[in-house]
Design goal:
14 strands; 340 residues; transmembrane helix; alpha/beta; Rossmann fold; seven-stranded parallel sheet; Nucleoside-diphosphate-sugar epimerase; NAD(P)-bd_dom_sf
Amino acid sequence: MTETNTGNALTIRPLALILGASGGVGGAVARSLHARGYRIRAMHRHPEKQREKYPAYEWVSGDAMSLKDVMAAAEGATLIFHGVNPPGYQNWQKLVLPMLDNTILAANANHARILFPGTVYNFGPDVLPEPVEESPQNPTTRKGQIRVAVEERLREAAWNGTQVILVRAGDFFGGANVANSWFGQMVKPGKPLKSVTRLGTPGVGHQWAYLPDLGETFAALDARAGSLPAFASFQFEGYWDADGSGLIDAIRKVSGNPKLPVRPFPWFMVPLLAPFMPLMREVAEVRYLWRTPLHMKNDRLVAVLGHEPRTPIDEAVAAALDDLGVIAPAGHSEREPEAA
């Protein structure tokens, strides 16, 4: 913890270690925790590049695969946010669990809780379309099976005395560092907005998570950690696009061009590229989520927080396009003009 003089009062600021602060979810959680008074320590393999972008944080050099590095970075931390994944979507089976084990050991040594972003990959078709927090996890994909093993490890950590707060959400949007997200496939980052790509089957719903709202949700739950169980699992509803056209309509609206052309995603290319590109193999595994609706309700989250942080969809999409450097089409404003 850090002591800060504020007049005659001495304020003690808790320390949060963010693993994955340069990523989408980790960055959003770091900003929300920092706004609530946390001192943020972020570990990165190249911290010098990050200090210029986020000077308010304490950046330390380290690798999540190194127990020594994680233990050193976690010294004095009240919580650890674990938001790291293998680079380039490679070596998941060899890297995911060892990285998590390092976080669990560091949290245990510092009596810190773990905040963890869950995924929808844990769920198989048997519990769709509306799984709940306690639904059986019978994934049919390799990535989903690894994620189930991850959560089993976290439950074991909670059983052994390390509190875990897990929030499961849909696909992310919002933030300049999520250009490689599914939302980044709907538009072309840094380019003029000439069309929007439809990712799913027409009429099939899809769940989206606006990252600033998800970050605030983690921070709000952390503030209530004392009243939560050892393993606290929640579903984040975010924006439920009931028929797969809602997000497209929002992009059209905020671009000022309601007739923006819609193009289909070239799914036929995915199996052709999968043998040569690890990313395409991952994409092929999760295609079922674009063919089948999966809608996670947030009843448990609302019961604890009273509400779910939620930015109006048009406002969220406008900010997300701006974050990605998407340029509104010529002759159209990025947002609709205000009424006189």
